[in-house]
Fold diguanylate cyclase.
Amino acid sequence: MLTRHVFLLLAWLAVWQMGRLVEYTDHASVWFPVAGLTFSALLVLGKRAILAIMTGAIVITVWQANHYQLPLSLLEMIWAGFLFGLAHILPYWLGASLIGRLSQHASHSAPQLIVTFLVVAAVTAFIVTVLVISSLVVTNQLDVSDVGKTLLPFWIGDMAGVIVLTPLFTGILIYLFPNAHISLDEFTREGLGSLKRLAKKMGLNIALIIATMLLAYLSGTPESSFAIFFLAVTHMWIACTESPVFNVVSLAASSLLIVLLVHLLGLMDHVMVYQFAINVIAANALFGIAVPQLKAYNQELEHLVYTDTLTHVSSRQYMVQQAEVEIARCHQHKVPLTLVVFDLDDFKLINDQHGHIAGDKALQSVCEVAKSMLSKTDVIARFGGDEFVLMFPGLRFSAAFNLVEQIRMAIHQILIDETTVSASFGIAELQAKEDFISIFHRADQALYRAKQKGGNQIGV
Ligand SMILES: Nc1nc2c(ncn2[C@@H]2O[C@H](COP(=O)(O)OP(=O)(O)OP(=O)(O)O)[C@@H](O)[C@H]2O)c(=O)[nH]1
């Protein structure tokens, strides 16, 4: 465990150094990746991460004070590092605890979690900015007159670090620290996806970033730097069509490239545009992760509404909707349609004699048998209790009658604890201008007649 914490400290120092390399004004970087590492370490390890991060904050402050030759004693440097550590850690710890708690509640869906994370990232990064800048002023590392110009770049840089890199660092830390406080299973289930597609889409992003940033470099006008926002389109496309893991990796890669090109091409005059672009594109793409998830939820809901959970045949709602569509189509194209209503005979007795579980089994067996004898265009639905409806688009009365007779005989072969199951049927063929209510009523009347005659037969 100790080695892992030493690794976290070293990783924190290395990532901090990455942020410093792209510092464009004192204490503010285009993005501040270490904010993302702090947030994810607190998310994965909780308070166990504090020691490594606090040590990192003190080491960095001492190093920085020496580097800028600030007139501070060693004790003052350590105190300043401790204050910086507190200001940097506390808000992110609160934010990470909130996200950790929400992720453990099944009632919070992935889209809700993502939106909350984006809001928490913005708010905690702002609180960290205010606290760290205050600590820098109190410990004489920043002049009060520079606070105004440092505040916004500091905040946006920290926020970019959290939004862009927390998902990626969290994935890595969960892999390294097995007893993590949080699970990303919901997002990592699909893995990375096809490497070929990944290469193509990454290539497109890279080409777009280079093209738009070269444009800004060559034209030298501040307006041209806004072209980077076109990247939101390709990232939204990736978010909606690829796995969340791919989304997060491509986001980190694009942001890193933007940050490097700002420095290589000397686009410092437009740096805030790029800072805002990274935040907006990342927030947009993370929110995009929710789109496929929402689609999946909708399909699940649709399945629940349109399928009977016990027998897995269609639901009443589905049959009524589908029947109206089919009846209209059959009238329009002068195609026949036959509707059948059927009901198990003395089903109450099966329940009473053998119990409800046996009754359920009988309903399931009847549906399996009937379904196996239908074609793709036929529909079977459970209307309620032991009553079912069959719809045969394209079949005339006589053809449907023959098929139903075979279904009736097959149902009569089903044995539930040595009791034979049987069903009665009512059949009606669609007449000119007739609607669903009318044909259903006629089939139901025919079923009534079959029951009156003793059941286990087709009423007409
Ligand atoms: N096991 C089980 N029983 C159900 C379910 N839904 C309804 N039932 C039972 O189905 C029975 C239907 O009873 P009835 O409407 O009197 O029908 P029946 O006994 O088949 O009588 P006839 O239709 O006149 O032959 C009732 O006992 C309900 O409790 C279900 O999902 N599972």
